[in-house]
Amino acid sequence: MSAAAIAAPGSNRWAGRKVPLELVALPPVETPSLWERIGTAPAWLVSLAVHVAVLVFLAGITIIVPTDALRTIIESEITPEDIDQFKVDNVLTPEVGNDSSVNVLSPSMAASSMDRPIEQEFQQEVEMVRFDASLPTANAVEVPNNEVLTTMFDAEGMTENTGGVEGAIDVLTREIASHLRENETTVVWMLDASLSLEDRRNALAERFEAVYAQLGNTGDVDTNHLRTAVATFGEGVNLLTTEAVVDVAPLVAMIREVPPDESGKENVFTALKAVGSQMLPERTREKRTLMFVIVTDEKGDDDGDLENVIAQFKRYGVPVYVVGNAAPFGRDKGYVTYRWKEGEREFRLPIPVDAGPETVMPERIRLGFWGPGGEVENERLSSGYGPYALTRLCVETGGMYLVADDTNQRKFEPQLMRSYGPDYRPIKDYTRDVMANGAKRALIEAAQMSTAEEIPNPQLVFAAVDDTRLRREITEAQKPMAVVSYRLSALQAKLEAGLPDRPKVEEPRWRAGFDLALGRVYAQQARALGYNTVLAQMKSDPLPFERENSNEWILRGAPESDAGSEVKKLIRQSSELLSRVIDEHPGTPWARLAEKELATPLGWEWRERNNEVLRAVESGVSPAEAAKMFAPEEERERMRRQMQGEQGPQNVPKL
């Protein structure tokens, strides 16, 4: 058999056998040339080779295009559009719980009822404000094309504690320089015109020219490409500059001479919409970077328009920065110390202002501490964050909330509080999250209940000139305790309804808030039951005085309580929850309140006292004269002024 037959395709005759190598050797074949190979190659292979060669050639070509020319090419396609098509829907605000009084997501935002679908819109009326300046309507503003509309900023939005106005201005200087390095920039300063901001406005005026001088000294920015505009707001808005200017020297005098707004209103969001519409051509027509800086010490009275303002500024890539105050922890009211004169007298007092809370809705119950010196509410705890609406505006637009002042008496480490940041998602997302978890919903509803129906503190001092007087005083003290017990029971039931969902809560802020609220309610219930017990015992069998001149009984906290098994159970439950708050959230406002609650005794004991004022009154002296007789010098002077109608200021300013 020939070698060709052995190697023929399809032959398997020799499968599995050993074949000598010489039997399978093929005859020699001539090697074709390169051109012969190309001539016989498939057409697709030749085409592929040609295209690869062309791409390699093109990849080696470099063209240098100036940046300005590229910018011209990109911007030449911009076509204005009508602004009305970008109007946004109102936020969604479902009610929290059936028949609940918790129907407000922020002080000026009404919620829809529970029986409506969560996707349904709510309608809200916004108070119309008369403006001092003539500003254009939104329809008159040019709108950029999609390229400008989709410009995004990093929305870190964390509150920065700057240590004062000077520190805040330094941060703003760096932010302005950063924007100016990238593009020509226009800065719009929005100044709160209220009485309380006079010192801060003056501090800004002192630093204003220095800021721009510092920018010019950096060497890598051109301040000729920086424009500035200034506006003030209160009940209305006043644009101090008809257009943005390069020379800021005249603006300093304008800032110093801002007429104070004594209305007590800060319509910051309405002012932002109006001035934003006026200044928007700087962004849309002239393609400049536009940034707003708000200087205030309150949260704003018109935050119901928050979502629309966010949509307007975020749509055009306009960051908003705020130089403001830290919000009080879980409370609407903060305090600003203000000095003023009435006639010849000068007053310097802390005046309540709308400064919080730091969250969409208060997430902290309002519950006082019983016992002497125990009203920790007066400590005005700091949240470490700005008020919700303004801070969220900064978050969404890529700006920052700069804390220039923290008027609260007790503050907490800013770095630690970063782990307990509020939820800055859209309000509809916040609401949906609250509705989905029973523990969160219970906390919000309990906080609202405690605010709507304040729980009074009990009477702790009882005149006892004789047993009849003592029993009469005890009877009067027992009457409000029925209300206290009812409201505490309602809070307990509301919070306990959320216990099944408590293990599902992951955020440390919500875990701390729920545990603290329920722990405090358990503690107050234990005290209330013990209080009623000791009053009933004293009323039925008054204790005798051990000292001859004693004429008054005082209830003081005691470590032990003999009010029964129910009280002991409440004490154990309270201790477990409050201890967990302290262990898991050290150094926070929640831990501070838990420590105070645990340090306040849950039991009661009677202590006798000699009250000379009471003794004088019993002898026929008027209460006012008796108090004056035994009061310290400072107290006597205060009472003298009170007797003469000088007890305090008659016209407290509206800040």
TrEMBL record:
InterPro entries attached to this UniProt entry: VWF_A, vWFA_dom_sf
Region of interest called Disordered, as start-end residue ranges on this chain: 622-655
Keyword Protein biosynthesis found: no
Biased amino acid composition, Basic and acidic residues: 631-640
Domain VWFA: 186-324
Keyword annotations: Membrane, Transmembrane, Transmembrane helix
Superkingdom of the organism of origin: Bacteria
Transmembrane feature ranges: 43-65
SUPFAM superfamilies assigned: vWA-like (SSF53300)
Compositionally skewed regions (Low complexity) per UniProt: 642-655
Protein name per Swiss-Prot or TrEMBL: VWFA domain-containing protein
